[in-house]
Amino acid sequence: MKSKPGLFISFEGGEGSGKSTQIRHLATWFREQGRDVVVTREPGGSPGAEEIRNLILTGDPGRWDAVTEALLMFASRRDHVERTIRPALAEGKVVLCDRFADSSVVYQGYGHGLGADYIRNLWKLAIGDFKPDLTVIFDLPLEVGLDRAGARFANVSAAEDRYERMGLAFHERIRDGYREIAETEKYRCVVIDASGDIESVGERVIAAVQGRIAGQGT
Ligand SMILES: Nc1ncnc2c1ncn2[C@@H]1O[C@H](COP(=O)(O)OP(=O)(O)OP(=O)(O)O)[C@@H](O)[C@H]1O
Ligand SMILES: [Mg+2]
C-alpha cells in the first residue's frame, strides 16, 4: 500500500483564540483516521528552539528590539524545521504546529511595524520556500481572546505573557495582519470564526481541513 504523504498544518490567531485547544482536538481526529501526528509549537518545537523560546517570551515587553526579536524567531524556526518538521513530514506524518512563520509576519511585521515584506525576506533567507500546506487562522474579537488567555495564565506560574501585555492597539494590528494574509494567500489559508463553544469551533476546523485535503490522497 502506498504510504500517505506528510501534511503540515499551522494554526494562527491572537492570544487565547483557541489554537492549543483545537490542535489537541484535531490531533485526536487525525489519529482516529490512522495517521501518525506530531504536535509542535513555535517559538520552540526542538531542543534548541525551546531555549530560544524562553528568551523571546519572558521578561520585559521592551527586552528586545524588533529586529533582534525577528532574528531570534527565525533562528529558532530554522532549527525547528530542520530538526523536527521536515523529518516528520519525510516519514509521512501529520505535523500540527501551534504558530509558524505567519506569526512573525504579523507580530514583528504588522505589530512592531517592521513591515510584512521585511519579514518575508527573512523567511526566505532562513527557510526558503518552506511553508505549511494549510494554515488555519482563528479570528476572534480581541476582548474575548485576551479574557480567555488571562484565564489560562491564572493557572500557570512562570507566565509567558510578554505579548499579552502589549496593549489593544498592538493586538488590533495583529488581527488585521492575519486578515490580510488570508486574503492574499487564499490557496493556503482558511479563516475560522473562533467564537462559540469549543465543540462548534472544532467542527468548523475539521470541516475546513477535510475540504482542503480532499483529493490530496490524505
Ligand atoms: N471556544 C472556546 N470557548 C471558550 N473557551 C475556550 C474556547 N477555546 C478555548 N478556550 C479556553 O480559552 C483559553 C485559551 O485557549 P487556548 O489556550 O487554546 O488558546 P491559544 O490560542 O492557544 O492561546 P495562546 O496564544 O495564549 O497560547 C483556555 O483556557 C481554553 O480552555
Ligand atoms: Mg496556546
TrEMBL record:
EC assignment: 2.7.4.9
Domain Thymidylate kinase-like: 11-203
Keyword ATP-binding listed: yes
Superkingdom in the source lineage: Bacteria
Binding site for ATP: G13, G14, E15, G16, S17, G18, K19, S20
Stored InterPro entries: P-loop_NTPase, Thymidylate_kin-like_dom, Thymidylate_kin_CS, Thymidylate_kinase
Ranges annotated as spanning the membrane: none
Reactions listed under catalytic activity: dTMP + ATP = dTDP + ADP
Keywords recorded for this protein, A-Z: ATP-binding, Kinase, Nucleotide biosynthesis, Nucleotide-binding, Transferase
GO molecular function, one term: dTMP kinase activity
Cited function: Phosphorylation of dTMP to form dTDP in both de novo and salvage pathways of dTTP synthesis.
Family the entry assigns: Belongs to the thymidylate kinase family.
Name of the protein described by the UniProt record: Thymidylate kinase
Lineage of producing organism: Bacteria, Pseudomonadati, Pseudomonadota, Alphaproteobacteria, Rhodospirillales
